[in-house]
Structures are given as structure tokens and as C-alpha cells.
Design a protein that fits this description.
76% helix; Arc Repressor Mutant, subunit A; 2 domains
């Protein structure tokens, strides 16, 4: 026999509007860093907690409550993934051997040995294609500081390249 929460959960999970909201939020924050199973797990656990904790007496709609909760959980998971998977780019297998890709990987490895933060910034900027604003928010500073730090990281890459050539 299903409890009231389980019935509500099943009804909400099958609702196409709620599916669209959850899909949009998860794709925006987790599309490039999580597997589909991890995303589905986050969707279901967040929906379950929202069904249990949502009170109708307040002035918020359920979908707004779900959106905020899922957005917060997705951001939290995204930060966790970035901090634990800084070397995610190292695990990519390339179908075709490309000398430029190998050279870029070598430069990134050199940057990683020198300064881990600069390595993280380069990964965020060029692998995850984050804007300076997003990088700043992610790392706890403003977009101008993020821009300056990315520039420093690029200058370090230039130093590495030119010191290897000569």
C-alpha cells in the first residue's frame, strides 16, 4: 500500500511540466559534468524531498519551490564535481591522435604542476566554457578578478610554450 507522499511523488514525477522544469535546470548546471544516472538520481531525490516538505499554506507554488530546491542541489553537485574532477580532461580518450591536442594536454599538465588554481581556471574557461561571471561566482570572487586570473593563467601557458620552443 502506497503512502500519500508516494502517490503525490508518482503523480508529480509523471507531470510533463515538472519534467520540463527538472530537465531544464539539470541540463543547465549538470549537462557536461554528470552522467544521466546521476542527474536522474538528483531529480528524484530533490522531487521526493520537495513533495515531503512543501506546505500549501505559503504563498509559493510547488513548481517554484521545486525549481529553487533543484537549482540549489544542482549547483552544490556541480561544485562538488568540479572540485573532485579537476582531472576529468585527463580521462578523455581521443579517437584520432592529434598532435595539437597532445600538446595542449602537456601544457595543461605543466600548468597543473606549477599552480593548481590556474589549471582549474583554464579547465573552467576552455573545457566547460564558463563565462568570467560564472567562474567568479564558482570560485568566490567577481568577474573582473576572474578575467585577470584567466589572463595570468594564459600568460603562464605562453611562458611554458615559449620556454619549450627555445
Amino acid at each position: 500500500m502506497q503512502s500519500v507522499n508516494e502517490k503525490k511523488f508518482n503523480k508529480k514525477f509523471k507531470n510533463p511540466v515538472i519534467q520540463k522544469i527538472m530537465g531544464k535546470v539539470c541540463h543547465r548546471y549538470l549537462g557536461k559534468v554528470c552522467s544521466k544516472d546521476e542527474i536522474l538520481s538528483l531529480k528524484m531525490s530533490t522531487l521526493w524531498s520537495c513533495v515531503k516538505n512543501f506546505k500549501n499554506g505559503r504563498n509559493a507554488k510547488f513548481t517554484s519551490y521545486l525549481y529553487r530546491s533543484l537549482k540549489n542541489n544542482a549547483r552544490r553537485l556541480y561544485k562538488q564535481k568540479l572540485n573532485t574532477n579537476l582531472t576529468f580532461i585527463d580521462n578523455i580518450e581521443y579517437v584520432k591522435e592529434n598532435k595539437d591536442i597532445e600538446e595542449a594536454r602537456d601544457i595543461l599538465e605543466s600548468v597543473k604542476d606549477i599552480d593548481l588554481e590556474m589549471h582549474k581556471l583554464l579547465i573552467q574557461k576552455f573545457f566547460y566554457r564558463m563565462t568570467n561571471q560564472e567562474i567568479g561566482e564558482e570560485n568566490g570572487y567577481g568577474k573582473e578578478t576572474a578575467r585577470k586570473r584567466v589572463q595570468k593563467a594564459l600568460n603562464l601557458c605562453r611562458k611554458i610554450v615559449y620556454s619549450n620552443v627555445g
